[in-house]
């Protein structure tokens, strides 16, 4: 444990409010932090094989030291685990362990594990306690904040799930040291996103300090905490995504369509990379619609390129459908409302807004330019 | 349509509040009532083969007249439909119909259909609109009020689900004329329950007027509306079952154990019959604990016997486990909290209360008496 401070971000949701702790060495402290908030709790730890090999014994030791009996539930790694079959497996194992409504499901892993375990916690006995211990950058700054959980179906990603707020989130910044660089970089796309939504100063900080964020230390803790604060602010305004929360989808409408178009094949495109390309496209499309300056779009593209993220459709390896096919993927995206296309567009760096009724013809023309360009 | 008035019960849950309409001829009016509340909605109608044969065309005609396109999803009848497999089937079909978050899932059927369709509505796109059109007495007075949804697993009944409040409930009292008498009678057990919880005058009304409730007309509409009011009052006080709502489980702890012990075999015992026996046992156990008078227990037994409901364990056909086995079923029931046994007991007719930490030894001794007596 270093001398660095642990930062605490409060997600202000009334009686569903909770703390996000961000800092080094938190994995060892999971037991005591949970015991302080949920006395006499028993737990199931949902994780995947890769994360279990690295971190499970550290965590269960900490849980045991705090008197918390824990049943491990270890799943196959990867996006395919966000399925009805895996959901049913987790539900059955938690019930077989006779956990009660006041006990806890702990998610130890990245976004896949968090989304699946949170969904299970939300439906077992109509809602158990849920604790997130995110081990990827993406999960620390995005999926573990805000209570959205879910699985994928043949009809699309995250179309099935619940809102289930955690009781506590523990983001240990040191576990990110063991992440593959590509995965860290993909998560960084969501960090940059918070700057682009409504924090221009944070985006400028990232342009200047991204190397320090990548290498660790206090800049990394700051960037993660600032990202959590940004997301927590939006979530507190709109817990159930009926309004402002849609801003968090900056880059996601194009991004989800690209993920679907690559059949969620992580060797071609992972979620954060899709968001990176999606954010660049959202800015370029905004510039094309004369909503923002082409210089802003260029600045976003330059930063994504500098950190090594894809930002053009042509950066994605392999075949992609044509413009019409991409538009179909966009239309099936869950944010479609009454058949109209909704996008997050922008008036400049940190000036994003929800654009409803975007003409499909404009999107199609833009996609044609991008795919032929 | 007769000249009888439609009664409206408001479930006061703030922005999740909704109306329950009770009266004759409502099935034909489903379209206009939904259109008045959810303009431009599209719908999926979840139902079972038996109910579809009787009522589906009436309802879809009414929906079409109000401009609501509806996709029917017809499932096998019976408790086995409350499964992960059927849940996944409904979810897939609703998504295949490209329904959006603002569209509606309509449950047309009894408790099984309502619980399953409500669960699906609660998880598709993290929550769609949900409308209940209950066609059994049990569903009209119990399962369609209060937002509890769920499915069964090998570990027990209703252990998996969500709280998903409907936007509207339409209880057509005329559809009950086509119910088998045994099913109507089983639903009546839940009507009597509301009197026994906290409405002694209503119980006295039922003792005097149960024949008129069974034969239809204004007494039936009144009994159903009064039951919905009783349940709505409790639900408004405790939406998520952290306190008072447990009162609604009067008769259910014994009842669920009996259902589990008969392997949910409806030829032996249906839910309402389990509740009837459970209520009689809860009163007899309360008398044994000197909480209420034996006369009160006898009065409950006499009324259940008068309407033709089972009230003794020996009224259930076939083999049952011994007292120890029954206690195991009770311990796995979802209302177990931290290992202690919680029962709804009573100080007299309409004076039920939540008894926590009931000694398992007392329950065991009581069960031995009942099973040997």
TrEMBL record, chains A, B:
GO terms for cellular component: cytoplasm. Signal peptide: none annotated. The keyword Lyase applies. It is found in: Cytoplasm. Its EC number is 4.2.3.4. Pathway: Metabolic intermediate biosynthesis; chorismate biosynthesis; chorismate from D-erythrose 4-phosphate and phosphoenolpyruvate: step 2/7. It catalyses: 7-phospho-2-dehydro-3-deoxy-D-arabino-heptonate = 3-dehydroquinate + phosphate. GO terms for molecular function: 3-dehydroquinate synthase activity; metal ion binding; nucleotide binding. The keyword Cell division does not apply. Its main location: cytoplasm. It holds the Pfam family DHQS_C. Its cofactor is NAD(+); Co(2+); Zn(2+). NAD(+) binds at residues 111-115, 135-136, 148, 157. Belongs to the sugar phosphate cyclases superfamily. Dehydroquinate synthase family. PANTHER family: 3-DEHYDROQUINATE SYNTHASE, 3-DEHYDROQUINATE SYNTHASE, CHLOROPLASTIC. This is 3-dehydroquinate synthase. It comes from Pseudaminobacter soli (ex Zhang et al. 2022).
């Amino acid at each position: 444990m270093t001398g660095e401070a642990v930062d605490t971000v409060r997600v202000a949701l009334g009686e569903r409010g909770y703390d996000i702790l961000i800092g080094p060495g938190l994995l060892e402290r999971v037991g005591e932090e949970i015991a302080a908030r949920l006395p006499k709790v028993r737990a199931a730890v949902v994780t995947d094989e890769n994360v279990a090999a690295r971190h499970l014994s550290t965590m269960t030791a900490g849980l045991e030291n705090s008197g918390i009996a824990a049943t491990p539930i270890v799943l196959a790694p990867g996006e395919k685990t966000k399925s009805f079959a895996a959901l049913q497996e987790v539900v059955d194992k938690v019930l077989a362990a006779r956990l009660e409504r006041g006990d806890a499901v702990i998610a130890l892993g990245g976004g896949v594990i968090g989304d699946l375990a949170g969904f299970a916690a939300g439906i077992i006995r109509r809602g158990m306690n849920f604790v997130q211990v995110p081990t990827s950058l993406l999960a620390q700054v995005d999926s573990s904040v805000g209570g959205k959980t879910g699985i994928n179906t043949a009809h699309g990603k995250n179309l099935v799930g619940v809102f289930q707020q955690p009781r506590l989130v523990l983001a240990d910044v040191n576990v990110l040291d063991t992440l593959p660089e590509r995965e860290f970089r993909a998560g960084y796309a969501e960090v940059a996103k918070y700057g682009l939504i409504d924090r221009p100063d944070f985006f400028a900080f990232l342009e200047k300090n991204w190397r320090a964020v990548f290498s660790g230390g206090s800049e990394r803790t700051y960037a993660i905490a600032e990202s959590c604060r940004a997301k927590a602010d939006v979530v507190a305004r709109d817990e159930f995504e009926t309004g402002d929360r849609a801003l968090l989808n900056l880059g996601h409408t194009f991004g989800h369509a690209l993920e679907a178009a690559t059949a969620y094949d992580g060797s071609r495109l992972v979620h954060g990379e899709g968001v990176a390309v999606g954010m660049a496209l959202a800015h370029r499309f905004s510039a094309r619609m004369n909503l923002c300056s082409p210089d802003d779009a260029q600045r976003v593209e330059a930063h994504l390129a500098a950190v090594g993220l894809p930002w053009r459709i042509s950066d994605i390896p392999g075949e992609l459908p044509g413009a019409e096919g991409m538009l179909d993927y966009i239309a099936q995206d869950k944010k479609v409302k009454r058949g109209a296309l909704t996008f997050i567009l922008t008036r400049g760096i940190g000036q994003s807004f929800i654009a409803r009724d975007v003409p499909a013809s404009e999107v199609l023309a833009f996609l044609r330019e991008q795919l032929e360009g």
